[in-house]
Amino acid sequence: MAREPASIRYKNPGAMWGSALAIKWGAEKKAVNLNDGTGQGNNIAVFPTYVQGICAQLDLWRKSPNYRNKRFADAIRIWSGGNNVPAYIKYVTSRIPTMTVDTVMNDAFWRSPDGLKFLQVQAGHEAGKPIPAPQ
Fold first, then answer.
1. C-alpha closest to that of 54 among 108, 2, 132
2. For a pLDDT cut of 70, what percent of the chain falls above it?
């Protein structure tokens, strides 16, 4: 049987790195190093529940200067480490037709129906399939 993707194994829908923010939401203090072939030293935070992982994902998007108030295309380039950015953008915008490369990831976006939808779509992209998290 194939092993589940890291974002599912570690209840981390956004596949976010370990950080103080992740720990604030209940992640283990030590992140797991990933051997993903990119050579970027990627790691992933480990959460006890999907709810905590999702809350951390949203908190990071809303508060980090890397993502807050940025155009979607610029923010996702940072989130993805520059890996396969056009494919990531296409995956998201094909599932959320109201999003474009110019959508601003601001508080109004996160309060809109697209905010929650984006978190779900991003989780699907990171895992390569829908995640078994509560809706």
1. 132
2. 93
